[in-house]
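Hi there,

I know you've been waiting on this one. I reran it after we fixed the sequence typo, so this is the corrected version. Both the input and the resulting structure follow.
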Amino acid sequence: DPESRRILRVIAFAHDTFKHAEHKGSPRDWTRHHSVLAAQFLEKYTDNKIILDITELHDEAYYSWRMEYLYHQYDEGQARLKSLLNRIGDNIQLYYLFFKCDTRTGDKTQAPVKWFEHTIRNIEVVEF
């Protein structure tokens, strides 16, 4: 629908804009992750919680998958996924659509999206 498309476009334009400013040292400062910086930037222009939450959390499904399948930290991955789902709430379909679009760019592995589609029961899987 037009409103979902508008929201997704705003997120697409902003979500990775601050990768250059992200803290990548050790230990990692997650308050300076590019997604947090992007959401903080967008707060100057919108108070739309859906836009801000999806922007900030856009990599969380990937991180959950990575913890489970690359690092074999199943409990930690499930806890991270549960936290994501609790925060996203009823906006899970919109989150999924953005996650799928974002994962389809470049040379990213599609395994996290396939995992998400099989794991999350209350989404409508789309093909494009």
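Quick highlight: The mean pLDDT is 96.

Best,
R. S.
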